[in-house]
Amino acid sequence: MDLDLWISKVKEGNHLSEDELQLLCEYVKEILIEESNVQPVNSPVTVCGDIHGQFHDLMKLFQTGGHGDFVDRGYNSLEVFTILLLLKARYPANITLLRGNHESRQLTQVYGFYDECQRKYGNANAWRYCTDVFDYLTLSAIIDGTIFFYLRISGALCPWWSSPDIRTVDQFNHINNLDLVCRAHQLVQEGLKYMFQDKGLVTVWSAPNYCYRCGNVASILSFNENMEREVKFFTETEENNQMRGPRTGVPYFL
């Protein structure tokens, strides 16, 4: 595998061949199987929220300083997931991919990723290769033992995944000796939002003008070696601003 060549190829807007994508997915699975469900990460680090298939905005995110749900809703879920897999393969110790609720076989058949793979490859093989990788993605990360970041936790296990409650968050942080919980999943128009006055829970959203129509800004949250925080905001790219078309008419933000 020539990872640098493949990275350049995808950044230029081209797809890997079906065989190349299969090889990449198998390679990354071997890396991911060694990681924990709660993956330890050392600062400095940049936290990114949902991307949702907005490839050009992901490229701008990298330029801004930087990853959330990777697929569905945007027009370029395949390119987004492919470039993230390539970067994970090329720099395995420097990028941590967390599984979001859209990284599932069921939701990708509803929200567009399955159809996108069919359209771009002419069959469902690419979708199968990618969704097999979903099973290996880590569920959360803990930064320097004090910051917990997650994208997707079952509501049965975590009652504040979709509806955070200050008492539950305070208890969780106290029991686990945490300073902050970072989450994604929920669109916030301002890109980043501390959910309570004590700032024990923050939502990070990294898909600007979500679904090409919501008008929101996006953000990334960086921690330096001293765990000092810096928020960087960014807006959509011109390429994404020009993308308009029929969207899947599902009103609920899964």
TrEMBL record:
Protein name as it appears in the record: Serine/threonine-protein phosphatase
PROSITE patterns attached to this UniProt entry = SER_THR_PHOSPHATASE
Family from the record: Belongs to the PPP phosphatase family. PP-2A subfamily.
List keywords of the entry alphabetically. Hydrolase, Manganese, Metal-binding
Please state every residue range assigned to the domain named Serine/threonine specific protein phosphatases. Answer: 98-103
Write down the chemical reaction(s) this protein catalyses: O-phospho-L-threonyl-[protein] + H2O = L-threonyl-[protein] + phosphate
Q: Which Pfam families match?
A: Metallophos
Q: Which GO terms describe its molecular function?
A: metal ion binding; protein serine/threonine phosphatase activity
E.C. numbers: 3.1.3.16
Q: Where is the signal peptide?
A: none
Species: Acorus calamus (Sweet flag)
User: What highest taxon heads this organism's lineage?
Assistant: Eukaryota
